[in-house]
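dumping this here before i forget
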Amino acid sequence: MTESLNIQAQLSNLSQRTKGDKVIWALVIILALVSMLVVYSATGSLAYKMYKGNTEIYLFKQIIFIIIGITVIYFAHLVNYTMWSKVARVLFIISIPLLFYTLFFGVRMNEGSRWIKLPIINMTLQTSDLAKLALFMYLARMLSKKQAVIKNFKEGYLPLIIPVLLVCVLIAPANLSTALLLGSSCMLLFFIGRANMKHILWTVGIAIIPLIFLIVSAITKHNSSDNELQVEKKSSSVLTGRVATWIGRVEGFIYGSKKSNNESAYQVEQAKIAIAKGGLLGAGPGNSTQRNFLPQAYNDFIYPIIIEEYGMIGGAFIVFIYLIFLWRCIRIFKRCPYAFGAFLALGLSFTLVIQAVANMAVSVNLFPVTGVTLPLVSMGGSSFLFTCFSIGIILSVARNVEQLEGKQIN
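structure:
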């Protein structure tokens, strides 16, 4: 009885010390629970094969990441968000050489270099996640300072768009999808930050040009004969490395399984089978069969496993969770009296929700394969921890708004 009272007292004390938007806290816990269930299901067969029958190994790893992630959220939300305005420029400057280093010397996979290996702890870090966080801190700081001249191209827009272009250009060679999603989030933030619409449209128009090139190249490649493809591969260096991967993904999106040797098309086909098997109510927790055939079922393609096991209702519930998260962040934006905090919360929420939408859209073949994870649901890694850090900053803004208003955001 005494132990029960002590536990209740500790939980009550922790609840009192936990501030910020309670709804966002609840959404984080829900997504973490979903993550444990689905990651355990998606990795069961892989763990059995890799670890000689130990099917719980990946579950334990995910639980550790979730515990660390929630700890990161908790301590990040205790920090006054205004501190990030002071370190934003330094953090942004540090992220640029890290992106350069990753591009040329990072861990390579699928012709792309996205990670650097951290010594001692033997863990890989995706530097684009750090760069995204630093960029939004920096943009929130600059937007808050440039509101008086934001309509002016030279004094307002140019100092904002140059950092965005620099980061996107450095990320794109190894991870084009992340660069495009990051650029889209920044354009939305500029629009809400009252940047000149003409400047935004010009930027979007220029960015579309290489995308048109990819689409045309994919169609040309598909229509070419095998002999022409061999000549093209020998005579041109454009269709090598990551460019060839991008074109292959666009080709797989347009033509689907007509190209049997297209890995992205195969992934999408297996995802469609998983969704079809799920139906309305799903096969039940742990009853996925497509996890044995779908590559990256625990990571990039975890959403089809959710639908297969929990049905369209489960898939719609996940969409609903992210929409509620965005709505709560917009409420924080509206209530925050200071421009930096408002732009910081909105920018970070945009990038997380857009990433989630992109991941789910790929699974149902609305977008080409992107290789981005489902925030807080996909198997843990540096991306998972940076997502938690971003949410902690959003909750820090909410906590300070509560203190200013003298009440919780309801």
